[in-house]
Specification:
Length: 428
């Protein structure tokens, strides 16, 4: 039987032209959408446009995510179908959410904290909508991954234009948002597609592998140019890990790593200010003592925990109470959050919140990892755990755990990783 894109193995997939593969996925997507009802088709098309809506601004992105989450909830009520509540990671999310609500009610500023806790649930609810409704058909899941990859490429095009037209500003890039978060989009929204891209680049052969490797390298260079160091590390480590977990050809893996390292070295040599930001300043700012701005930013989180060790000072209250917490300690710095998920949960939700939040985060990692081990033949399933592992790594500097932009980017990626756990074992 002749090999086609439908039954291609990892060794032969690269022999097919990219146009053949794109044509197959596009045909599959159209067939899957044709099977949906009118409003269901509209909802799925709206979902598939998400990676491009996320390129606009936070309000349209939040509206996209929130609408799909609410429609899913209404759909579940109308159908009286809440079977998804039996899944462990879903229950872990709801337990954590309950703790944040109790913490808010017990805080010194319950009205503000309760508002922050109440609306946070829309982000994981969107992930539930993706897993248990929108991505139930694997053809549509694959279509969304391609849409995400195209969104990542579009972001790289926008950043390239910014470099050409205005260049870096104080070592950072900000297009298309006017805010210093484009690297956040690449590192979080693009991480599921990027992980698969790297895994295929070191596993398949021929033109497809070369194309994916080239695109992956270009996105890494632009990640550096955004100036967002931790987001670059997430992509670099995530890509290397993804390349190891799905049928890697060791020689090609080493070559890809060497090419990426060489590209980074050449970039650093041509742009000493970028090298200084990513190496010298990064090492100097490691939170090992009071000389570090990260240390002085994170320590107030522990002071918040000291003041309310059981339930914390209340969800989101750190931004309003930090000044009182650090009174008399001029070296400590106040920001809206202490720049680490686990420290933030400890300070805002206490030891109970930290335990509940850790169980929630690591249940998502475990769910993706176990599903990937059971379905090792599928590159999407096998690499899915890389996404939550990279985003929930405990010793990383992070954005606001309850913040809008961070959660939009983060949960859009987590949703796709969790959706991969529903894929049935196959070799396609």
């Amino acid at each position: 039987m002749a090999t086609t894109p439908e039954n291609a193995s990892a060794s032969s997939m690269g022999d097919w032209a990219l146009a053949d593969l794109v044509r197959k996925f596009f045909t599959d997507m159209k067939a899957a959408l044709a099977e949906k009802s009118g409003w269901g088709r509209a909802a799925h098309v709206f979902w598939l446009l998400g990676p491009f809506i996320l390129l606009i601004e936070r309000s349209p992105a939040d509206l996209w995510l929130s609408l799909l989450a609410l429609v899913f909830l209404g759909r579940s009520v109308a159908r009286k179908d809440f079977s998804w509540l039996k899944v462990f990671w879903v229950r872990a999310v709801l337990v954590f959410w309950a703790v944040t609500l109790v913490s808010a009610l017990a805080s010194a500023d319950p009205s503000y904290a309760l508002g922050e806790a109440l609306i946070w649930i829309r982000f994981p609810l969107f992930a539930m909508a993706t897993v248990f409704w929108l991505a139930q058909d694997k053809r549509l899941l694959y279509a969304m991954l391609i849409s995400t990859g195209l969104g990542m490429v579009a972001m790289c095009g926008i950043l390239t234009a910014e470099l050409i037209i205005v260049g870096q500003q104080h070592g950072r890039l900000s297009w298309p948002y006017g805010d210093l978060v484009p690297g956040n989009y690449l590192a979080k929204v693009g991480l599921p597609a990027f992980s698969i891209m790297v895994a295929l680049a070191v596993s398949v052969r021929g033109r497809l592998a070369a194309l994916l490797g080239t695109v992956g390298l270009a996105t890494m260079v632009l990640s550096i140019m955004t100036g967002e160091r931790v987001n670059f590390i997430i992509r670099a480590c995530g890509g290397m890990l993804a390349g190891l977990v799905w049928r890697p050809k060791l020689g090609r893996y080493i070559i890809l790593v060497l090419i990426e390292v060489a590209a980074v070295v050449l970039l650093f040599k041509s742009k000493p200010d970028v090298a200084e930001r990513f190496i010298g300043t990064f090492i100097e700012h490691l939170p090992t003592g009071s000389h570090s701005p990260y240390y002085n930013t994170m320590k107030p989180g522990f002071l918040a925990f000291d003041s309310a060790p059981v339930l914390g000072i209340g969800t989101g209250n750190f931004r309003n109470m930090c000044a009182d917490l650090v009174a008399g300690q001029p070296l400590l710095e106040c920001h809206p959050h202490p720049h680490n998920f686990y420290i933030q949960l400890l300070g805002e939700n206490g030891i109970i919140g930290l335990i509940a939040g850790t169980v929630m985060m690591w249940s998502i990692i475990a769910t993706c990892f176990i599903a990937g081990r059971r379905n090792k033949a599928n590159v999407v399933a096998a690499t899915a755990f890389v996404v939550p592992l990279g985003l929930f790594w405990p010793i990383a500097s992070t954005a606001d755990f309850f913040g809008q932009w961070n959660n939009i980017f983060m949960w859009s990626a987590l949703a796709l990783a969790l959706a991969a756990t529903t894929l049935k074992s196959d070799r396609n």
